From TrEMBL:
<keyword id="KW-0812">Transmembrane</keyword>
<feature type="transmembrane region" description="Helical">
    <location>
        <begin position="44"/>
        <end position="65"/>
    </location>
</feature>
<protein>
    <recommendedName>
        <fullName>Antitermination protein NusG</fullName>
    </recommendedName>
</protein>
<keyword id="KW-0472">Membrane</keyword>
<keyword id="KW-1133">Transmembrane helix</keyword>
């Protein structure tokens, strides 16, 4: 959640900085001998903001990938409570009506069956 807030804040700051960087059509008169130097904030601040945004996106992507590939224990309990099966599956391979176990077995289940998911 914190990463999402920081990412949103970084996008807003970059948008404000890009809008502030635009110049109106009328050019300011500058002496010929003095070259216009951008401020340190514009020079390094924008690079830092883009670097922060890139690192945030990379960090979130790696975290999401690792979370989806985590192996969990899934117990399928029938509505009568008599039959139950215990399987190992990756989090990303579990959907509403089916799952794929670590061994590659495709399992479909009905809406009446209950899933219990335990992280190892």
């Amino acid at each position: 959640m914190l990463i999402k807030l920081l990412l949103t804040l970084a996008v807003i700051i970059m948008g404000v900085l890009l809008l502030a960087k635009r110049e109106p059509n009328a050019k300011a008169i500058t002496p010929v001998n003095v070259p216009a130097m951008p401020s340190l904030w514009r020079r390094y601040g924008m690079r830092g903001a883009f670097l922060l945004l890139g690192l945030s996106l990379l960090g979130y992507s790696v975290w999401y990938w690792r979370d989806q590939h985590k192996v969990v224990t899934v117990t399928i309990v029938s509505p009568a409570g008599v039959l139950s099966g215990v399987y190992k599956a990756r989090k990303g391979d579990i959907s509403e009506a089916k799952m794929v176990t670590v061994e590659g077995v495709h399992i479909r289940f009905s809406n009446a069956e209950r899933l219990e998911i335990l992280e190892d």
